[in-house]
TrEMBL record:
Domain PORR, first and last residues per copy: 57-391
Membrane spanning stretches: none
Protein name: PORR domain-containing protein
Pfam families: PORR
Recorded superkingdom: Eukaryota
InterPro entries named in the record: PORR_domain, PORR_fam
């Protein structure tokens, strides 16, 4: 049997001989009585990191949205630490253990980080010379306001948690995994100790079923038919005139809203029929029993798209860390290679590699870098963001303005190429691709479109 590299070169040579032929849905290669579709061969033999596969589909506005959130997330994390202290103060040395969560590498000082936001944090030394940190009166008022917003929207958060349980195979989920979604759907800090017990008519905490469960689970108590209606169904108005209490999850044929990067219009024009077929293809509601679906089938994958669409619709910012989705693969019957599915359907979802962990956006929920509908907690976070003191001047990027952050190395990102403060040349590369380079740079994406929408 020939060496793998030799065989690959032979296949490539045969492919090059066929390049003068008109483009069809695929090029067929014959080797040793085996027929191999070119696109299948490329997907099998091409190895690329997620960053490499997604950078050409980068949406500048959504990258800006994520960049603006970076420092805010550190501040909100510190708020939560201080909230848990009896007097809401803590010695600076005790914060050292949270360096990884704050993403503040040595030798940078945490005290220097805090001093940059004097409107939110106060530092003082006690009689022994120990440096302490606390919140300003304004910050305490903001934290109190956040608590009121969370409490006012608690019933809606309980609905979302119940609907997550309704989508799961066994109608129960590990409490630990739901906790990963706590900030994303607006659950309080005492989510596990108190909040889960406030809605006994919806769900209950059950002990682990050893040896299969590693921890406690949250189990659905009562099935609510009116909650088994997807957000897509609500927007489409398909349930108008029907009693929601009689609703039964079924096969759906609703099209998913899609937003593609502007530089893909020419490439996508040849795939409109395939995309149209995908949109027309029926799929099982996320709330219906999916045990009979075959993993890897078109029906299985499209239902997974619907599940992810529903979960992202529940989130406050219509954005979530991808790890939080992959944790639920077994419970929601989603593909093992979930990231590949997200990347393929980049008209529905947008994956950003900015930061230590990837994030996924629901495209339809954003206009530019802003959510179209802002949850009260999003408005509150914007208020906190306006009080963070890391700004000196504003720098223009394309049509958007982004704060220029002082001590940039202090907030160095958790991944490569994380700076959003680009010069003009980099900005053009990130914002839009030249038409002349489309043939080379979009090769992988064409393959993904073909694989995602072929019949």
């Amino acid at each position: 049997m020939p060496h793998r590299n030799v065989r690959s070169k032979a296949l490539l040579g045969q492919l090059l001989l066929n390049l003068h032929k008109p483009f069809t849905n695929g090029v067929t290669l014959n080797t040793n009585n085996n027929t191999l579709n070119y696109w299948q061969w490329r997907l099998m033999t091409t190895s690329k990191r997620v960053q490499d596969r997604s950078k050409r589909k980068r949406v500048h506005d959504l990258e800006v949205a994520l960049e603006k959130h970076k420092i805010l997330s550190k501040i909100l994390f510190l708020f939560e630490i201080l909230k848990q202290e009896p007097e809401q103060v803590v010695p600076i040395k005790d914060l050292d253990r949270y360096r990884r969560q704050i993403n503040l590498p040595r030798p940078h000082k945490i005290s220097a980080f805090l001093r940059k936001s004097p409107k939110l944090f106060e530092l003082y030394k006690d009689q022994r010379g120990v440096l302490w940190c606390g919140m300003t009166k304004l910050a305490e008022e903001l934290v109190e306001e956040e608590g009121k917003i969370i409490d006012e929207n608690s019933d809606k958060a309980a609905e979302y948690v119940s609907r997550m349980l309704m989508m799961s195979v066994d109608k129960r989920l590990p409490l630990e995994k739901i906790a990963h979604f706590r900030r994303d759907i607006g659950l309080p800090l005492d989510f596990r100790s108190r909040w889960v017990h406030r809605y006994p008519e919806n769900f209950r905490v059950v002990r682990p079923f050893l040896p299969y469960d590693e921890g406690e689970n949250l189990e659905l108590v009562d099935w609510n038919p009116s909650w088994a209606i997807t957000e897509l169904e609500k927007k489409a108005g398909v349930i108008e005139g029907l009693r929601s209490c009689d609703h039964v999850p079924r096969l759906l044929s609703l099209a998913f809203p899609m937003k593609f990067p502007p530089n893909y219009k020419k490439v996508l024009s040849r795939y409109y029929p395939q995309i149209g077929n995908f949109q027309k293809r029926e799929y099982l509601s996320p709330y219906a029993d999916a045990r009979d679906l075959k993993a890897g089938s078109q029906e299985f994958d499209k239902r997974a798209v619907a599940v992810m669409h529903e979960l992202l619709s529940f989130t406050i910012e219509k954005r979530v860390v991808t790890d939080h989705l992959t944790h639920f693969r077994r419970e929601f019957m989603m593909p093992q290679k979930l990231m590949r599915l997200l990347l393929r359907h980049f008209g529905i979802f947008y994956v950003s590699e900015r930061g230590r962990r990837f994030s996924v956006f629901l495209n339809e929920a954003y206009e530019g870098s802003e959510p179209i509908e802002k949850h009260p907690l999003v408005v509150w976070r914007e208020k906190v963001d306006s009080l963070i003191g890391y700004r000196r001047k504003r720098k223009k990027i394309g049509t958007l303005e982004l704060p220029d952050i002082e001590d940039k190395d202090l907030f160095e990102s958790e991944s490569e190429n994380d700076s959003i403060l680009l010069d003009h040349k980099q900005e053009q590369t990130m914002g839009s691709l030249e038409d002349a380079s489309l043939a080379d740079s979009l090769e992988m994406e064409i393959e993904e479109i073909y694989a995602a929408y072929q019949d």
